[in-house]
């Protein structure tokens, strides 16, 4: 199967006149949740500043103390004409940014596909525990000798089924899950695509095209390149095989 060509979105969006965004993320080599937050801004051309907080080091404890009630990354700090607010959950970020930038296309426009995309994000947000635990994200490595266990393979099969279903109903031959335009569902599944590449998982041709589309998006490539330049190493995200 031939993957459709990459189409770049030329829209350029800015926060409201007084609103400024500051995104706090973890190690770009490892933090799948941070990739979601990054894509919810960069992939939709919303202007923001960002900082990287290394995970599981003293600086991370300082981040938690400084940014209460956030207990995780990504965290989005919003300054609205001197009034600060904080969003520390990627689903909440997607909804907040959609409210501020309805023209950005964060969610699909049709009611049925928008409901499906939200369901995709919710399931990704709370499920697929086996895949998360056995195949941690690592943008600097590719392994050829790790075989998914039964539970992980079941997660992968479910993901492939969801991708096929979305593309068959709303893909219309486009590169992304819901057609020609990247949306929040693509942002939420991009870290999965990263894992599937890192562990060289065997996929159906249509699923492999989705992996390539998500990982070749310019915003994902930018995140990947930054992760590869990092010098921090988390040993439990590194394997000796392959």
Structural commentary:
The chain has a four-stranded mixed β-sheet with strand order 2-1-3-4. The protein is globular and about 50 Å long. Helix 1 packs across helix 7, helix 4 runs antiparallel to helix 6 (150-171) and helix 7 crosses helix 8. The mean pLDDT is 90. The chain has two domains: 19-102, Glutaredoxin, CATH 3.40.30.10; 111-229, Up-down Bundle (Glutathione S-transferase Yfyf (Class Pi), Chain A, domain 2), CATH 1.20.1050.10. The protein is built from nine helices and four strands. It has 242 residues and is an alpha+beta fold.
The stretches of 5 or more residues where confidence is low (pLDDT under 50) are: none
Strand order of the largest sheet: 2-1-3-4
Largest sheet: 4 strands, mixed
What is Rg?
Answer: 18 Å
- Percent strand equals 5-15%
Order of helices and strands: EHEHEEHHHHHHH
- Structural class based on helices, strands and sheet pairing: alpha+beta
Number of domains: 2
Q: In which range does the helix fraction lie?
A: 40-55%
Counting DSSP H or I runs of 4 or more residues, the number of helices is 9
Shape: globular
Give the rounded overall mean pLDDT.
90
CATH class of the largest domain: Mainly Alpha
N-to-C terminal Cα separation, in Å? 28 Å
Instruction: Please report the total strand number as a whole number.
Output: 4
Named CATH topology of the largest domain? Glutathione S-transferase Yfyf (Class Pi), Chain A, domain 2
CATH architecture of the largest domain: Up-down Bundle
